[in-house]
Design goal:
This protein has eight helices and seven strands, in the order βααβαβαβαβββααα. It has one domain: Aconitase, domain 4 (Alpha-Beta Barrel), CATH 3.20.19. Helices cover 30% and strands 14% of the residues.
Length: 216
């Protein structure tokens, strides 16, 4: 995945607590085994006025004019702002896939479900937890006629705005290092490919019967 260093984008304010993964990508869209094509169905039940199903032409569906992502001010938004317990519910990795494929690289919220937060980092999305007061301030700024633009610096662990806003954030050193390097779980394993191969060769030499085919 691409390294994450700094990022600047427009903020879409989703003013809700407890946004669960079924709201992020409803269960009917999980029939696909591909990792692509989920973006148009992000927040499907809130985004459209009809019931979505896989394979539908989303461009022809009636949109909910009251949903934030349908507001022209937030067209092209790439930073999602939410409240407490974002990503709760099931552990489906389709949720960060849908967010990423819809163009979101950063999610800022008061708190996150642990598994969801881990799935975000493994897919190149930076999930930033800030205090309620800081999140309240961002919602106040994002509600003006002109959209709010924020700059996120992962190395410095800081969210900043054009008006002088500066919000430091905490992050696991392990997660930070992986995002900066663009390393997912597969890349982390491949970094030890020689050691893994040597271990398999030693194991095979000591226990060759484990490699024999079973006879039934």
């Amino acid at each position: 995945m691409p390294p994450f260093t700094t990022f600047t984008g427009i903020v879409a304010p989703l003013d809700r607590d407890d946004v669960d993964t079924d709201a992020i990508i409803p269960k009917q869209f999980m029939k696909s085994i591909a990792r692509t094509g989920f973006g148009p169905n992000l927040f499907d039940a809130w985004r459209y006025l009809d019931v979505g199903e896989p394979g539908m032409d989303n461009t022809a569906r009636p949109k909910n004019p009251d949903f934030v992502l349908n507001d022209p001010r937030y067209a092209g938004a790439s930073i999602l702002l939410a409240r407490r317990n974002f990503g709760c519910g099931s552990s489906r990795e389709h949720a960060p896939w849908a967010l990423l494929q819809a163009g979101f690289k950063v999610i800022i919220a008061s708190s996150f479900a642990d598994i969801f937060m881990g799935n975000c980092s493994k897919n190149g999305i930076l999930a930033i937890a800030l205090g309620d007061g800081a999140v309240d301030g961002l919602f106040a700024r994002a509600g003006f006629e002109a959209p709010l633009s924020l700059r996120v610096d992962l190395e410095q662990q800081c969210v900043s705005g054009e008006d002088g806003l500066r919000l430091p954030f905490a992050i696991s050193p392990f997660v930070k290092a992986n995002l900066l390097a663009g390393s997912d779980d597969i890349a982390l394993s491949l970094a030890h490919a020689d050691e893994i191969k040597a271990f398999e060769e030693r194991r095979h030499a000591r226990q060759p019967w484990l490699a024999r085919p079973l006879h039934v």
